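User: Design a sequence. Structure:
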């Protein structure tokens, strides 16, 4: 059961990037209503009261919150912890999420997240961790190297439906993965990432989240 819950949580993280456009049905069919855009909440736990987390400081979809943010976890909410990984852990069988910024015409990773259960939403689109950042959830199809400003860096060729992206991974890029966690990991002072929160009263509700552990921060 813990393994299933963990895979559901990593699926939440993997599916946080924008979904690919879906085709319309037959001309006679009314187009399906688009789901509401995801609300991504990041923050530091200040207190835990049952299912309610109080986060401060916090951001919502990349924008700093003006005060504390309250998040109510579903009773069966899944928890994943963040673990440090290495570039050597990435193979051409890996699925990853790469947060990138364009530098000198190249997509340069600030973070690479290895999805242990595969990424269900393979796509690439705008991200909100930094201005003009992009998140690409994809399968690694090639591993190589490239020179950027005279420095040799590792590279990943990432493939997703309808596209491909070559990502430069400098030594400064954080490389992490996830492992099963529990509610006991939700303590004051740790950082959390909630990829699919929903508005609820004066706060938010969440079906799952990823939490920092041993000094390793969750996805940004």
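Assistant: Done.
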């Amino acid at each position: 059961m813990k393994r299933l819950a963990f895979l559901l949580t990593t699926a939440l993280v993997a599916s946080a990037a924008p979904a690919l456009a879906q085709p319309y049905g037959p001309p006679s069919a009314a187009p399906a209503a688009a789901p509401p855009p995801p609300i991504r909440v990041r923050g530091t736990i200040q207190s835990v009261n049952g299912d309610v987390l109080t986060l401060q400081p916090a951001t919502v979809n990349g924008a700093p919150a003006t005060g504390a943010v309250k998040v109510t976890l579903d009773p069966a909410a899944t928890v994943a912890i963040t673990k440090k990984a290495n570039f050597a852990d990435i193979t051409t069988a890996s699925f990853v999420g790469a947060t990138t910024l364009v530098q000198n015409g190249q997509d340069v990773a600030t973070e690479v997240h290895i999805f242990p259960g595969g990424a269900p939403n393979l796509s690439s689109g705008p991200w909100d961790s930094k201005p003009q950042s992009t998140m690409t959830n994809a399968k690694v199809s090639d591993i190589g190297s490239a020179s950027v400003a005279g420095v040799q860096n590792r590279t990943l060729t990432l493939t997703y439906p309808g596209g491909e992206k070559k990502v430069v991974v400098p030594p400064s890029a954080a490389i992490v993965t996830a492992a099963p966690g529990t509610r006991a990991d939700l303590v004051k002072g740790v950082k959390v990432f909630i990829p699919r929160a929903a508005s609820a009263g004066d706060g938010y509700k969440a079906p799952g989240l990823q939490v920092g552990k041993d000094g390793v921060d969750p996805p940004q």
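The domain at 2-16+37-81+179-211 is CATH 2.40.50.320 (OB fold (Dihydrolipoamide Acetyltransferase, E2P)). The first helix runs from residue 2 to 14.
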